[in-house]
Amino acid sequence: MKPQPTTDLSKLTFTMLERAVIYARISGDDSKQEGRNLQGQLEMGRKHIIKKGYELIAELPEDERKFTSGADMDLPQLKKVLEMAHNREFDVLIVREPDRLSRDLTKWIILQEELRRNGVRIEFSLIEYADTDEGELLKNFSAVLADFERKKIIQRTIRGRQQKVKAGNVLMAGRPPYGYSLGKHEGKTTLEIVESEAVIVRLVFNWYLEGASLGKIAQRLSDMHVKTPNETGRRVIRIKKMGFTEWGKSTVSKILNNETYVGTWRYGKTSSKQETIPVTVPAIVTREIFEAVQAKRIQNKKEKSGRKSKFEFLLAKRLTCGCCGYKIVSNGSQSKNKTFLYYFCPARNGKDFVRECNLPTFKAALVDKAIWDWLEKLIKDPLARMIGIEEYKADREKITAPLKEQLGVTEGLIEQYNQELSGLLDSLKALDGRHSSRARTAILNDIEQVEKALDGLESQRSNLTRLLETQTLTEQQVNEIEEYLTEIAKDLDTVKQDFENRRRLIEFLDIWGTLKVENGQYVVYVQCRVGKNRFDIRQTQNVIKYHHET
Ligand SMILES: [Zn+2]
Which of 36, 165, 286, 295 could form a disulfide with 267 if both were Cys (CB 3.0 to 4.6 A apart)? Predict the structure, then answer.
């Protein structure tokens, strides 16, 4: 209903204005296009309302850059729109054009349907679509185009990056490999050798060929107080009392594996080798040494897998001390005809560690049995497993929420700095002979600062993205778990006879436990991809005080 200009008072009281809500939205990839900023969209909506004579109920601007990117339905303001529609709080929703609501055709149709069901119609402030079948078709077509455009933008970005690499540029989101820094050469981005680190890289390769183990190499580097590559990422760094970080075996392993050191850097490393694009960079070690190391590594791995560990610990390296947070270690001893197997906290006797801990020794047999029995139950019970998986997902969601938020903030800042950068570049271009070289220097300084900040932010973004990926469970992974467990359930009694089989299952389900003492009771908290639990361990006293050799 439109307001009627009327002098008849009795009619006027019954003339209700239609209630309108304006929804505006910007996302990361369209912020640079004109007329698409939030204020612009709201302004257009207001004009539309005045023209049509509606009553403005609410303005809901959405800055998608603050949230996850892409076609996401979990946008708070859009949620608000649906909520208000559901409560019949308004009659017309005004947006600039269809793609402001959703760029994904399916979601667009669902949204439209949802609003229609609640008696809300959509009007566009940019284009008016006729209220006919053709108009309907046009609207949908416009949404298809938006969807297509979004996919094209993604494609273009990927292709752009690939072309850059093909032209000989090294493209890196994070930090360059240890031993290198990013540099420019003949207009191309390339890796430059950092000689102080390259020396260490060569040393690591040589030591390995001389027969030193990964652990031994790590130990030597730590003893020499060599700074670790900063990108140790998620690994727990053991901080010694002296206050510097130690090298880990995995860091050494990463160096020995990295083909970049023979002068071939690859773009797209995570996918299969055929899809990678090689870029030639300066070499730190020779091809001969690299190949020799690879051969030796394969040899060592074979020998290691053939060597059986003396004692079997089902949860080796998968337990944490609930008292101080260190990784639990396991050890056993044999006397005549008896074997004693224990889990204990390495900080128990204090030496070498920042913290001292008083977690008692846990009997490995009791801990392992409790966890295995629980696992068996889960393998036989698909329903309990389903609940467990959902719980796991919900937990992950909670864990990753702050990461997602941080990622959003990071992306917002990147956007902001990019704008600042282009502003600075414009002012640099605008400088002419009338300006002193001092002005130029000042701007160049600013540019350098902004670029530095951007580098840091971009590396943070890639770290966060990677972290998020490892922290979530995909549908495909859930299916894999189901298939695997169903297969195992068929033949569980045979499978469990073999320690290696049981251990493989522990790894596959990614089981982690925490040892604790609560009110004098020995307790194990355990969690994995298909569930979590808490066990009381019937161990009443700390039978043996295990002192590990130092
Ligand atoms: Zn401890």
Answer: 165
Structure tokens at 179: 């031993």
Burial of 111 from C-beta contacts in 10 A (0-12 / 13-18 / 19+): buried
Please give the distance, rounded to the nearest whole angstrom, from the Cα atom of residue 321 to the centre of ligand 1.
Answer: 5
Q: How far is the CA of 547 from the centre of ligand 1 (A)?
A: 14
Torsion of CA 371, 377, 380, 386, to 10 degrees: -90
506 C-alpha to center of ligand 1: Å?
23
Which tens digit of pLDDT belongs to each residue from 401-428? 878 888 888 888 888 888 888 888 888 8
Cα separation, 105 vs 111, whole angstroms: 10
Q: How far is the CA of 530 from the centre of ligand 1 (A)?
A: 27
Which residues 6+ apart lie within 8 Å of 100 measured at CB? Answer: 23, 24, 25, 41
| CA distance readout (Å), 186 to 55, 167, 190 | 62, 12, 9
- What tens digit of pLDDT does each residue of 31-78 get? 455 445 788 888 889 988 988 888 899 999 887 766 544 444 467 888
Q: Indicate if the pLDDT at residue 207 is higher than 50.
A: yes
- State in Å: Cα 514 to ligand 1 middle: 10
**Span from the CA of 13 to the centroid of ligand 1 (angstroms):** 76
What is the number of other CB atoms lying within 10 angstroms of the CB of residue 147? 19
